[in-house]
Specification:
Belongs to the CdaR family. This is Regulator of polyketide synthase expression. InterPro entries: CdaR-like_regulators, CdaR_GGDEF, PucR_C-HTH_dom, PucR_C-HTH_sf. The chain is built from 15 helices and 6 strands. It is an alpha+beta fold. It has 3 domains: 101 residues; 121 residues, Reverse transcriptase/Diguanylate cyclase domain (Alpha-Beta Plaits, 2-Layer Sandwich), CATH 3.30.70; 93 residues, Orthogonal Bundle (Arc Repressor Mutant, subunit A), CATH 1.10.10.2840. Strands 1, 2, 3, 4, 5 and 6 form a 6-stranded mixed β-sheet that branches. α3 crosses α5. The longest helix has 43 residues. It is elongated and about 110 Å long.
């Protein structure tokens, strides 16, 4: 950028500099507050004009050589001290302008991300803004969301670590990495599943074993919102169903939204199939956990007993108790489907802890 500017371009940012050096040599004084403020203001203007700081420092040095005070009584120390003060103030103003520009860019990026993930703003304008960040919203995109044991923000080392790994592996592939509500978020073209799979691997490591959910590819700006919401719902399902897989794909969990689409019907099934378990000593929860372990272990009693730290005999007794109370035999394929669906519904509806 600096190569596009000639020496005359720098002149207006050196205004009054030679005079300051001459006056400092004659009087030995330090620069006044007003003079320092004027140097800072020139530094800010130079940064806003897109000039490079190294080239500006070189211009100051050249100006000092060209206008070095001469004659009797010239104080080299005073001139050098004034030059150092002037350039320090100039650099301070330059850096202040840069920090302001960075903050503005961060705020603009955050506003865009909020608008994109919440489906706000005019779609045409949103698409134009998206191109600035490498996204073409006319294509399909998929969203992956990672959560860990802590909340993450834009400056978090975990995000930087994942970003470095992705750039090193894939370069610039129209990938947008960010944070939202304390989670890491990756938006990638829908036909580049390997990007999101690698993001999941890196995010799992960076978050210390966190969980990652990947939404399905969807077209358009609304598709980004849809994929993001699918990923969030997958994480919510994982928490409610105690799914411990490190990577969840929304496409593999579609049965759960289907099961809960008619909440009242699911509540009726839970009451009908599992309600009698409330009559057991200790309530329904221990027997519900028994069914959960049984189905999660592939209906293998020995494995389910091990998971619950029970003897096989004690576990078998529990299954018999369930059969007696509900009239449904968990080992019978016909009854098993009803009971397993009801168990899933109970976990989704947080029954029996909550009334439904």
């Amino acid at each position: 950028m600096t190569g596009q500017h000639g020496p005359e371009e720098y002149g207006k940012y050196l205004d009054g500099y030679a005079g300051l050096l001459g006056d400092a040599s004659a009087t030995g004084r330090r620069l006044t507050r007003e003079e320092l403020d004027s140097r800072r203001a020139l530094g800010e203007k130079a940064a806003e004009a897109g000039l490079g700081l190294r080239a500006l420092v070189a211009a100051h040095m050249a100006e000092a050589r060209a206008n070095w005070p001469t004659g009797n009584g010239v104080s080299v120390d005073s001139v050098l001290a004034a030059a150092a003060q002037a350039m320090d103030a100039f650099a301070e103003g330059y850096e202040r302008a840069q920090r302001h520009a960075v903050r503005q860019e961060e705020a603009s990026r955050r506003e865009f991300i909020d608008d994109l993930l919440y489906g706000r703003s005019d779609l045409g304008r949103l698409a134009q803004r998206a191109e600035r960040y490498g996204l073409r919203l006319s294509y399909e995109h998929a969203v992956a969301v990672a959560r860990g044991t802590t909340a993450y923000d834009e400056g978090d080392p975990a995000l930087r670590e994942v970003e470095r790994a992705l750039i090193s592996r894939f370069g610039d592939r129209s990938i947008l990495l960010t944070t939202k509500d304390g989670r890491l978020v990756c938006i990638a073209p829908g036909d580049q599943d390997e990007v999101l799979a690698y993001f999941a691997k890196q995010a799992f490591a960076a978050t210390g074993g966190g969980q990652v959910a990947i939404g399905r590819p969807q077209p358009g700006a609304a598709g980004v919102v849809h994929s993001y919401e699918e990923a969030l719902n997958a994480l919510d399902l994982a928490e409610r169903l105690e799914l411990d897989e490190p990577v969840l794909r929304a496409a593999d969990l579609l049965v759960y939204p289907v099961l809960t689409r008619d909440r009242q019907a699911m509540a009726d099934l839970v009451h009908s199939a599992l309600g009698p378990l409330r009559q057991a000593r200790g309530g329904a929860q221990p027997l519900l956990e028994t069914l959960t372990a049984y189905f999660d272990s592939g209906c293998v009693s020995a494995e389910a007993a091990r998971r619950l730290s029970l003897s096989v005999r004690a576990f078998t007794y529990r299954l018999e108790r369930i059969h007696k109370l509900t009239g449904a035999d968990p080992s019978d394929p016909v009854h098993r489907y009803t009971l397993q669906t009801a168990v899933i519904g109970a976990r989704l509806l947080d029954w029996p802890a909550k009334s439904i």
